[in-house]
């Protein structure tokens, strides 16, 4: 980004010393109060440096450290005809006191990058400018732009060249990811945002409370903001109300994505925007009204508080959302109040472009709800009904309607599903790449389930009432499946997987799975999560993974030497399947990790 530079006439550049050009301010006619060689005050000072020593260039090996600090200025390179007069070292003292400067992100009152300096520097060409130690400005740019905001503030206090580069970085920044400290959060946000006039994407991790003042500061400082994400820590509280959020969305005409956590104090809201396409709100609770006037909204995620006394009317919300947002493609709703009536309201909207539907923790969603979804939306690519009460019959309807489109199926926490339904789904869905069946096939006698240990009571009550006559076995053979999750399936005692593309397998807390009844034929496997399993099972997993890799490695053709003494691996040029061997070699290089902790 080019910025106007202060005008310096040719007569000025020849009459003023080089220090004047370095500081970009008028020369002192009264002389310097500091020594021209070492920079210390002249009063009562006897310089220990040789008076005949002249400052040299950076590339000269005999130049002193103080000369290096001075000659790294970009201004000196722009004035090649300036006489070599000794310069004052006022900026050197600031650079030497770098350790005394507070550079933490929680002290924003310090203007470390000099943006408020009365004599700001000019923006020079990064390709031609030389900074400290002869380093080109382009290299310094690439290094500094990878620093976090706190590190960038600290780098600005090194020297003037670094300060000018950091100022250009702030002005050119389009995306900012920042963790806001507990104290001085508003002043910190204001001091950072005023340095970034071109900011379009912002992500804030709040360690303190969020209120309307913070929202107003963001709206004022970022006129061209397109994406905003606010996440809160465990100790932070989001105090933004629904009216304040509605005004913010209405004023930001360029806003396309809004993601916010901790929205428990909204109470109710009306969002009107013609540009908003992505909306994520979490921790919603007892909303009196929810109105979406967003014709271009394509993705919405609403996560409600999991309290039983939540009074939000999801049926009315779903009906209004379907009518006012006709371009929705992805819908995610997580609430314990999800029911079959809510599903009917969504299906009545006839959202023709819907591709991903996620209705989580709705224990009142049944096979009838699956039938309504299948009759209205036949092109779904993702379906998440985790925590519902569907059975193997519902899985059969899913397989009959979505065999050519569905690639991700998530049915965790569904107590009425058996291993037969899981096996049927993998056999009837050829495009399936991800499947989550956690906590479906469970042992009713298991007292230490993962959810009990964490104190999480999200499982439906029907899970505890499910009876098993015997342990179940699961056999899956799939050519495209990449991720399979069977966490908490303590009712499985036998597992056979023949999935050449599978790279991630979750067997956490599969306590009753017998090592001799485990068969893994997955050459692409990279991660196996096995925490909470028996030691013998973990050993069997490691043995089968290593045997699978060894079998692939032995597939390379070998050839005996001329005297028949020993066998060596044949080169690729002698193999008729050289291309296949290269592919196998890539697989062998990928080491599978068995994650226990």
Automatic annotation (TrEMBL):
Residues 103-113 have a biased composition (Basic and acidic residues). Residues 67-77 have a biased composition (Polar residues). GO terms for cellular component: cytoplasm. This is F-box/LRR-repeat protein 17. It comes from the Eukaryota. Residues 52-66 have a biased composition (Low complexity). Pfam families: F-box-like (PF12937). InterPro entries: F-box-like_dom_sf, F-box_dom, F-box_LRR-repeat, LRR_dom_sf. Residues 135-171 form the F-box domain. Residues 52-82, 103-128 are annotated as: Disordered.
């Amino acid at each position: 980004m080019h910025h106007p530079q202060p005008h310096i006439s040719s007569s000025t550049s020849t009459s003023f010393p080089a220090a004047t050009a370095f500081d970009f301010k008028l020369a002192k006619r009264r002389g310097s109060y500091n020594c021209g060689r070492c920079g210390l005050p002249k009063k009562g000072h006897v310089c220990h440096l040789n008076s005949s020593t002249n400052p040299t260039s950076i590339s000269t090996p005999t130049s002193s450290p103080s000369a290096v600090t001075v000659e790294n200025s970009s201004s000196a390179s722009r004035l090649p005809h300036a006489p070599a007069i000794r310069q004052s070292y006022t900026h050197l003292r600031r650079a030497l006191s770098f350790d005394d400067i507070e550079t933490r992100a929680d002290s924003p009152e310090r203007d470390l990058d000099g943006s408020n300096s009365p004599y700001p520097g000019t923006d020079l060409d990064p390709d031609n400018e030389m900074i400290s130690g002869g380093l080109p400005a382009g290299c310094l740019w690439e290094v500094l732009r990878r620093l976090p905001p706190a590190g960038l503030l600290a780098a600005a206090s090194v020297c003037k060249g670094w300060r000018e580069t950091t100022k250009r970085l702030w002005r050119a920044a389009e995306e900012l990811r920042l963790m806001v400290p507990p104290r001085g959060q508003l002043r910190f946000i204001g001091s950072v945002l005023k340095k970034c006039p071109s900011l379009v994407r912002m992500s804030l991790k709040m360690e303190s409370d969020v209120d309307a003042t913070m929202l107003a500061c963001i709206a004022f400082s970022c006129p061209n903001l397109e994406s905003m994400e606010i996440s809160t820590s465990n100790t932070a509280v989001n105090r933004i109300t629904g009216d304040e959020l509605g005004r913010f969305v209405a004023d930001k005409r360029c806003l396309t994505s809004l993601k916010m956590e901790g929205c428990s104090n909204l109470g109710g809201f009306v969002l009107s925007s013609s540009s908003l396409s992505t909306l994520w709100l979490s921790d919603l609770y007892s909303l009196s009204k929810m109105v979406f006037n967003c014709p271009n909204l394509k993705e919405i995620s609403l996560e409600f508080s999991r309290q039983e006394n939540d009074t939000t009317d999801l049926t009315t919300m779903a009906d209004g959302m379907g009518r006012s947002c006709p371009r929705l493609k992805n819908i995610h709703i997580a609430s314990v109040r999800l029911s079959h009536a809510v599903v009917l309201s969504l299906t009545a909207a006839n959202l023709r472009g819907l591709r991903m539907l996620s209705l989580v923790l709705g224990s009142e969603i049944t096979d009838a709800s699956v039938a309504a979804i299948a009759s209205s939306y036949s092109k779904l690519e993702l379906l998440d009904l985790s925590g519902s009460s569907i059975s193997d019959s519902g899985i059969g309807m899913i397989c009959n309607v979505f065999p050519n489109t569905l690639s991700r199926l998530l049915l965790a926490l569904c107590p009425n599903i058996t291993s037969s339904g899981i096996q049927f789904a993998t056999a009837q869905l050829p495009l399936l790449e991800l499947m989550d069946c956690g906590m479906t096939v469970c042992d009713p006698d298991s007292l230490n389930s993962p959810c009990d240990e964490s104190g999480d009571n999200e499982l439906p009550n029907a899970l505890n009432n499910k009876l098993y006559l015997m342990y179940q076995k699961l056999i899956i053979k799939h050519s495209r499946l990449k991720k399979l999750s069977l966490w908490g399936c303590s009712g499985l005692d036998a597992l056979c997987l023949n999935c050449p593309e599978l790279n991630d397998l979750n067997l956490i807390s599969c306590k009753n799975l017998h090592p001799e009844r485990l068969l893994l034929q997955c050459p692409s496997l990279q991660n196996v999560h096995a925490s909470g399993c028996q030691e013998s099972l973990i050993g069997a997993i490691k043995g089968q993974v290593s045997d699978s890799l060894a079998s692939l490695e032995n597939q390379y053709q070998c050839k005996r030497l001329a005297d028949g003494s020993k066998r060596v691996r044949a080169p690729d040029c002698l193999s008729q399947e050289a291309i296949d061997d290269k592919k196998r070699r890539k697989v062998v290089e990928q080491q599978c990790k068995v994650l226990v902790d």
